[in-house]
Specification:
heterodimer; A: 114 residues; mainly beta; six-stranded mixed sheet; five-stranded mixed sheet; 11 strands; B: 116 residues; seven-stranded mixed sheet; globular
Chain lengths: 114, 116
Amino acid sequence: GESVGLHLPTLSVQEGDNSIINCAYSNSASDYFIWYKQESGKGPQFIIDIRSNMDKRQGQRVTVLLNKTVKHLSLQIAATQPGDSAVYFCAENIGPGGSYIPTFGRGTSLIVHP
Amino acid sequence: DGGITQSPKYLFRKEGQNVTLSCEQNLNHDAMYWYRQDPGQGLRLIYYSQIVNDFQKGDIAEGYSVSREKKESFPLTVTSAQKNPTAFYLCASSSGDSLLTNEKLFFGSGTQLSVL
């Protein structure tokens, strides 16, 4: 399944399925992007990053895709596990005023059903 | 262990009271940030500091104040002027060698502030 935009949608998947979380970023000048995972009551944790000179980067069970033409990021999680349940945020490195201040989207809540 | 520590975990504020949230890091990071998170919302920047003795307002600085007297510490005071202070407050740091450095943020575990 997919989730689009920055309105804190909820994505529900079955354990073992692949998950795709989408994010539309704001500033075309942004050249560095990060995905964070936030579990309930905790601070966000770094998952994976990508620079604008790349369109794909892979980590362990996660892949980030970047489409600069349409200012779109996606996070793919392979073989989703219950421990992946969390809110996922994308962040870009340039804010609305053009300053190099990390700027976050509203997040997507991922729920993994055993 | 290296990391960023926020305290307290939970804090209650009475009307008209100022409260201070603590943030300490031992990562030797130059830059520190305070974000506010409301339920179902993203992170909104309150204040940030790129270097000791200097800090800048973020998007929602009204009703808040900060200081950066030491590299390791960046306390946030929620003043009585902040009329809707109930939120989850997150402190973060990054190595931030220069304004153009692309660095990931390291977050503390947050402080939940509620109004009595």
